[in-house]
Amino acid sequence: MKLITKLLLIIGLISVAAGSVYLYIQQLNSQLNSATELTPVDLSKAENYQYFESSQNLKPNLTEQFSKTVAKTIISKASPKKVNGKWNLDFPDVNKLVNDYIEQNLQKFDPKEFIPEVKKSQIKILNNNQEKDLVNYFKQFNYIIQKNSQGPKILVTNNPEQNIQILDRLISIFENTINDFYKLPVPNDERLIELHQTEIQLLTAQVKVWKKIKNYQQDPLQAILAGKFQETISQGFKNLSEQLNQFIQDYQINLE
Fold first, then answer.
1. In principle, which of 10, 62, 63, 100 could form an S-S bond with 222, CB 3.0–4.6 Å?
2. Helix or strand run (H / E) with residue 22
């Protein structure tokens, strides 16, 4: 597959990513919106968490690395070939070099590059784990989801520039959501704490993937690798939604 074709697929990934994540939000709302009154989260005294990617942790530009690799490979593998009585240099297939380079990086791909560690010390854990604490947690959970998903409906188009603007909006929404979840107090239940950590991990991983895809013009190969991870994130959101729903059922939490 030619590189330009893969770049076009990256634009399509924006639509897939947006659709899968908003399906997750709808699933959460359908599970939690039975609450008669949404409880705003008191964030006034909470330390503001800001999502960022440290410049020390930024990966090198894969496309620049690839360009250097191609140049070296062409020089080292170019061989003289006689065609119609004339000598010419026979160069290796660039498309094959692209595919081989992508596959090599996929084999070395480490999901930990996208999924951050969320320590228990980074989130707010309540001392109590009573029914009222669980009810209040899920009401606040729902409030965060609904608050950050408000606004005009997101419609993905065939225009790459418009889709990049959509990514900017989605990234902003998710970064605000990440901040809110770091501030949301969690009842002292190990199972729920792990689910809360997973929520933040998936949201952060999604932001990282979107940022890589958004940067496709500067580093198309990195964007392709990030796009390959989108399916894993989408499945993660689906699994988390089911686990949250199961938790509510197991603990017989009444949100009415």
1. 62
2. helix 3-32
Amino acid letter at 112? K
Residue for token pair 């705003």: 40
Q: Taken in order 123, 244, 113, 218, is the CA torsion positive or negative?
A: negative
Q: What is the pLDDT of residues 60-104, one digit of tens each?
A: 676 677 666 666 666 666 666 656 666 566 666 767 776 777 777
pLDDT tens digits, residue range 16-26?
444 444 444 45
Task: Round to whole Å and give the CA distance between 247 and 10.
Answer: 36
d(CA 213, CA 166): 12
Size of the chain, expressed as the number of residues it contains: 256
Global pTM reads 0.71
Gap between the Cα atoms of 32 and 140, Å rounded: 10
d(CA 241, CA 235): 10
Take residue 71 and report the two structure tokens written for it: 């140049």
Beta bridge mates, 161: none
> Which runs of consecutive H residues, i.e. helices, occur in 108-229?
131-148, 160-183, 190-214, 220-228
Q: Name the amino acid, one letter, at 228.
A: K
